[in-house]
Amino acid sequence: MSRRLPGGRTAERDEAGNFPPFAVTVDLVVLTIRSGRLAVLLVERGEEPYLGSWALPGGFVRPDENLDAAALRELVEETQISGLPGHLEQLRTYGDPGRDPRMRVVSIAYVAFVPQLPDPVPGTDAARARWWAVDDLATVLSPRALSRKDALPLAFDHVSILSDAVERVAAKLEYTPLATAFCPSEFTIGELSQVYEAVWGVPPSDRANFRRKVLATAGFAEPVDEGTQRLTGGLGRPAQLFRVGPALELSPPLRRPHEARRRQPAGAPERAVRARPARGRPAGRTFDRDQPK
Amino acid sequence: MSRRLPGGRTAERDEAGNFPPFAVTVDLVVLTIRSGRLAVLLVERGEEPYLGSWALPGGFVRPDENLDAAALRELVEETQISGLPGHLEQLRTYGDPGRDPRMRVVSIAYVAFVPQLPDPVPGTDAARARWWAVDDLATVLSPRALSRKDALPLAFDHVSILSDAVERVAAKLEYTPLATAFCPSEFTIGELSQVYEAVWGVPPSDRANFRRKVLATAGFAEPVDEGTQRLTGGLGRPAQLFRVGPALELSPPLRRPHEARRRQPAGAPERAVRARPARGRPAGRTFDRDQPK
DNA sequence: GGAATAGTGTCTCTGAGACACTATCCT
DNA sequence: AGGATAGTGTCTCAGAGACACTATTCC
Fold first, then answer.
1. Span CA (B241) to C1' (C25), Å
2. Cβ(B57)–Cβ(B74) below 8 Å
3. pLDDT, tens digit only, all 293 positions of chain A
4. Which of A26, A30, A25, A42 has its CA nearest to residue A154?
5. Per-residue CA distances from B122 to B72, B94, B130 (Å)
6. Looking at the complex, does the CB of residue B45 fall below 8 Å from at least one CB of chain A?
7. Is the peptide bond before A292 cis (omega within 30 degrees of 0)?
8. Is the Cβ atom of A84 within 7 Å of strand C at any atom?
9. What's the CA gap between A179 and B271, in Å, rounded?
10. Cα(B29)–Cα(B112) distance, rounded to whole angstroms?
11. Is A52 an interface residue toward B (CB < 8 Å)?
């Protein structure tokens, strides 16, 4: 039997007819809001390479499970939550040769948005896990974290993964109701606003307008019938409580305040593959419709 | 030496201490516009499984190349273009067990946007490749393609990949200048509009407004100094020619006409991991801030 | 009362859509 | 002239931002 595995025709295999050996893992970027700051769950490495460094939780994909299931399993193992409160989605796949010095590892990264959880319990499997404020890390992306001398470096290429994840969540808050994934089941508009502030780094422009915009999308935040409650630290007028509704996207989106939107998208300026600079015109085919000049 | 490979702590390995064997491939969704329709490059399979079916081009990632390089190599092999006119970016990774009946294959899918190319030349490596109009295929996503009895089925899970790619390009045209990746180096506003129409399935709402919006983003379409040209089939007033500028995003975005935006996002309604229905409350930890009820 | 937070009213400016009109080519 | 496509003017309405004001709590 031939080894032409992929759907296409140009499958490559080594001299012996075997496919190259790859390890396939999932890495998790578990994000939450703690003390008004965006935080990520990291685990301390207990061996080389990067012994003592902090890394994203992750693990091998099992032979019989799909990628989402592997990510979900890792999430449950690390956070002890079950039933997935919050949100989990595939982020991007990282597979540069050399990203792990030991061998070729292709890792499918996932992002999870979870509500505030208790600290990892010592004695459990997650004993050496802890939450880190994202802007205390040497994240490429966050302008707040740049040039901090005490910034914590991460193992492997996990800084890139984290940066991509932070950009993803910042973008997702603009046009989806996923900010609620960071909130408890009942929340106030003020708490929702704090999520946006923690993720974007700047508060939504105007409190009053923010409230109106949130309420403008039906099925984003739905009022709990009765009560009100003060969660603001016990001060001020009690706030209405809301639950998350069925909406899948924000119909007038909540755009990030100006700056980020006006030139570069704040984070990675688009992740496109660049060819090495072509000298002169492309040597191969040319366009049908190119007019002679 | 231990085999705890991933950054995290919960690496799994089999009884013998080895990681499970995976094949890693890239699959390409090469999109272009042909005769005013969105088209994708497919190759005919010459062996089982899915012998005779059409599939996305793809191939193994080589041990020493990164994922982007593998995708770029496949693109060049299939289209004969070099220097990457157009755009190439990672789409998503597909790795369900059983997606290839022969063994476990994890495939990183890429989308490419390319300008119109000549038909594949018989006799070359790409002889059994051809362009298919996307809505002639049994794409899950495209409303136009649904319920076509003569729709062409694709091999493996390539329908899912194609659907995701089409949704990606439709979304990208809203807030990036990537429509120009489908155009020749000099193009008219009318041609740009045709790209939007082919991808979205509906023309931009108003010709005049479309023109103004395109021109509103500096660095999207920049006028070629001199000339004008008629490309419209030799009829009507000659159109100004434009070149692509340096803009990375459309500052007032070009939103898809209403319908798609008002409820579901036209395509896959968000690709989040769903946990199996939790019976009762989550058994594990509960939220810090859950108020007793 | 004063500080702090929640909620409402309303004005202005920009951008999106609709549509009428002019310009320049072809046959 | 008539059809076809390119380009401009302008009106209306909705959404975004700014800001003033009221409401309700704790101290």
1. 16
2. yes
3. 334 445 444 444 444 445 567 999 999 999 999 999 999 999 999 888 898 899 999 999 999 999 999 999 999 888 887 777 789 999 999 999 999 999 999 999 999 999 998 776 665 666 688 999 998 886 555 545 444 555 677 999 999 999 999 999 999 999 999 999 999 999 999 999 999 999 999 999 899 999 999 999 999 999 998 767 777 777 889 999 999 999 999 988 999 875 543 333 333 445 788 775 444 333 333 333 333 32
4. A42
5. 22, 31, 10
6. yes
7. no
8. no
9. 16
10. 6
11. no
Query: For residue B96, what is the nearest residue in chain A, using CA coordinates?
Result: A66
Query: Which tokens sit at A164?
Result: 């991509």
Report d(CA B98, CA B221) in Å as an integer. 45
Contact at CB, B84 and A273, closer than 8 angstroms? yes
- The token pair at B205 is 């709402």
- Render chain B in DSSP notation, one character per residue: -----SSSS-----TTSPPPPBEEEEEEEEEEEETTEEEEEEEE--SSSSTT-EE--EEEPPTTS-HHHHHHHHHHHHH---S--SEEEEEEEE--TTSSTTS-EEEEEEEEE----PPPPTTSTTTTEEEEEGGGB--SS-TTTTT-TTPBPBSTTHHHHHHHHHHHHHHHHHHSSGGGGGS-SSB-HHHHHHHHHHHHSS--S-HHHHHHHHHHSTTSEEEEEEEEE--SSS-SSPEEEEEE-S-SS-SS--PPPTHHHHSS-SS-S--B--PPPPPSS-SS---TTPPP-
- Helices B158-175 and B189-200 meet at what angle, rounded to 10? 140
C1’ D4 / CA B232, Å: 9
Both tokens assigned to B201: 């399935």
CA-based nearest residue to B33, from B216, B187, B149: B187
Residue B241 near residue B188, CB atoms below 8 Å: yes
Protein CB footprint (7 Å) on chain D nucleotides? 3-10, 15-20, 23-27
B107 contacts B95 by C-beta, under 8 angstroms? yes
How close does chain A come to B86, measured CA to CA in Å? 10
Q: Is A85 on the interface with B (CB under 8 A)?
A: yes
Residue A256, both tokens: 């990030």
